[in-house]
Amino acid sequence: SGRWARAMAILREFEEKCGTPIAKLRQVADAMTVEMHAGLASEGGSKLKMIISYVDNLPTGDEKGLFYALDLGGTNFRVLRVQLGGKDKRVVKQEFEEVSIPPHLMVGSSDALFDYIAAALAKFVATEGEGLHVSPGRQRELGFTFSFPVRQSSIASGSLIKWTKGFSIEDAVGQDVVGELTKAMERIGLDMRVSALVNDTIGTLAGGRYYDQDVVAAVILGTGTNAAYVERAQSIPKWHGLLPKSGDMVINMEWGNFRSSHLPLTEYDQVLDAESLNPGEQIFEKIISGMYLGDIVRRVLCRMAEEADLFGDTVPPKLKIPFILRTPDMSAMHHDTSPDLRVVGSKLKDILDIPNTSLKTRKVVIELCDIVATRGARLSAAGILGILKKLGRDTMKEGDKQNSVIALDGGLYEHYTEFRTCLESTLKELLGAEVSDNIVIKHSNDGSGIGAALLAASHSQYL
Ligand code: ADP
Ligand code: MG
Fold this sequence. Notes:
Layout: H1 2-17, H2 22-41, E1 51-52, E2 64-72, E3 76-85, H3 86-89, E4 91-100, H4 103-106, H5 110-125, E5 140-146, E6 150-154, E7 157-160, H6 177-187, E8 192-198, H7 200-211, E9 215-221, E10 225-232, E11 248-252, H8 267-274, H9 283-288, H10 293-308, H11 327-334, H12 342-352, H13 359-390, E12 404-409, H14 411-415, H15 417-431, H16 433-436, E13 439-443, H17 447-458
Parallel strand pairs: 2-5, 5-8, 9-12, 12-13
Antiparallel strand pairs: 1-11, 2-3, 3-4, 6-7, 9-10, 10-11
Helix pairs in contact: 1-10, 2-13, 5-6, 7-17, 10-11, 10-13, 11-13, 13-15
The chain binds adenosine-5'-diphosphate and magnesium ion.
Protein name: Phosphotransferase
Enzyme class: transferase
Organism: Vitis vinifera
């Protein structure tokens, strides 16, 4: 029928606009490398902030003692403590607790958010068990993983540049987030020192390096997306400090804010961006990360309902509600292998109030999920290629046997199998078989929490 043809036309047009042929991915990777250079050359030189993290030493395995970490950067935050036993014993014990953030605190005041966090931390500290305690007379020390863009001013201080991922707390912008946390801890009488401020990518890099010295970069694919890597300090023109002894400096790219004319953007992406809390910003993140993928699918479905009556004569009202279709639900539909696509049918019914969908309609939904996930995964692979190019590790050198490991983490990477396998096969395709043998993508499960604790250890006031 004419309606079906119209629906197919919308689908095909969307597919075409989302296309990521290898040649385009190479352009994206090259643009990423160019922007990395620009961001390292001068402050404000690029959309990529290329933030100097002040982490010039990554964990070696010798770290010892009891350390805490706090991981804030999405819908949940986690508190964690680890007992480090040094080279042979490594992580002797590790305990954590996950606490969800009430939505009103994500858009309230800085004090309210940090008071809530400090209270949860104090409660966790109170559960410190037998044999787990800091040496007498010593203050507890914490690594703070704060996964929003921060202008770092030392290893343990930095001001918030802007919120992302649905947070919007105006009075915190420009403030030193370590100061905000420290004040909140003081208000409730919790005696703890923040000895390292990092974000999840740097935590993941540190956690990955603790177990594998070949780790050179870390990428997070979760609610948001970001990457960090180890740069030579002398290749950072905007760094005017002393050259660190190691010669290295970890760079927090903030790659979620990358954009390029080579990115395949559609009209749906443009509207999503315009209606977002941060229009014009985080464009790469908005086509790749878990916060947005489901909503892109919803937007295309909505158009198909409006212009091609995909779900009958009226547009299902719930289809108009932003973010109602979450990426975990999208991935559940995408992975549906039942002959009648029963998962797709029940998700459409339960989430969007659309009952009795035909098999043919369900297939369209899966195809849409595939288009959106494939674009995100392939662009992520292109971003990783950009980093490898910057490091000169995208080609084989004569007699070169060095391995490069990229630590990956985040709920999207961990749970969205189609996304993960597409990312990995695309990177292989981009690198070619020979180079691929020396590049390893490694899931660094919860590297970020333990990484922050490790960095607290290596930046302890008692060293
Ligand atoms: P955060 O990024 O908030 O710190 P995570 O790394 O755990 O936390 O990532 C959580 C995000 O991962 C969710 O917001 C969601 O977008 C995505 N995600 C979680 N589970 C799945 C899933 N099963 N399929 C696809 N995406 C998922
Ligand atoms: Mg996280």
